[in-house]
């Protein structure tokens, strides 16, 4: 099979998925046959079959032997929407409201970048963990976390597999005062693609976050990769400042009366109007 076939299958999958989620392809309507789709999009039937396999796996279509392929009427996994302006509440709530799969855990020498970011002492090791978070049983994030060894020894591998990391850090007496984070984009490598159930080279949201205690030393370094169809960042803004120097500033959200009330929300994708297509 040509090396470009997986990319063509991914492209066709995304095109058909967009038609379904936008409402253009309505529930219970029959999709064109595999030969017709192959001709319409200029791809092989193998490529069409791979794209349909992915849509079926997500529950967006139903194949009925002898009748054809139909839009199921189901929606894809509702994406996580993270409140970008309320970082720490978001971290704890996400840990409580999602599942986690711990892929690796151990202690390793830090890279020079980690030494600088976490302000580590000479010879100090870091605890490295790799986790996948899931929503409704489906993976949406791949997390590589580094914590100074002096902090990591306060909890076990079993603790990390069942409790949000920030909660473990605070339980050990540490206070998370502030964080610095950078948002970008990345492509899925083989290991990440397998963990997030994606094709190699799929586009991902990326985030690097360093959490600091009041002394200024870092207590956690997180490198996170997210499926953009299952995770997004949200921030409310307000216009502030005097005339001639007005700017957009984040809205400061008050904490809910119930400390357990979720800040992190699960939102279904907004349905676009038929005939209107926008590229992400």
Overview of this structure, please?
This protein is of the alpha+beta class. It has two domains: 5-71, Arc Repressor Mutant, subunit A; 80-266, Chorismate lyase-like (Chorismate lyase). Helices cover 28% and strands 31% of the residues. It has nine helices and 13 strands. The strands form four sheets. The chain has a six-stranded antiparallel β-sheet, sandwiched between helices. A three-stranded mixed β-sheet has the order 10-3-13, with no helix packed on it. A two-stranded antiparallel ribbon has the order 1-2. β8 (203-212) and β9 form a beta hairpin. α1 crosses α3 and α2 (34-41) crosses α3 (45-57).
Task: Kindly identify the CATH topology of the largest domain.
Answer: Chorismate lyase
What proportion of the residues is helical, as a percent range? 25-40%
The total of helices stands at 9
In angstroms, what separates the terminal alpha carbons?
29 Å
Mean pLDDT: 80
The fraction of residues assigned to DSSP E strands is 25-35%
Please trace the helix and strand order, writing H or E for each element.
HHHEEEHEHEEHHHEHEEEEEE
How are strands sequenced across the largest beta sheet?
4-5-6-9-8-7
Helix-and-strand structural type: alpha+beta
List unreliable stretches of 5+ residues: 254-280
CATH superfamily of the largest domain: Chorismate lyase-like
Give the class-level CATH name of the largest domain: Alpha Beta
Number of domains: 2
| CATH architectural arrangement of the largest domain | 3-Layer(aba) Sandwich
Name the overall outline: globular
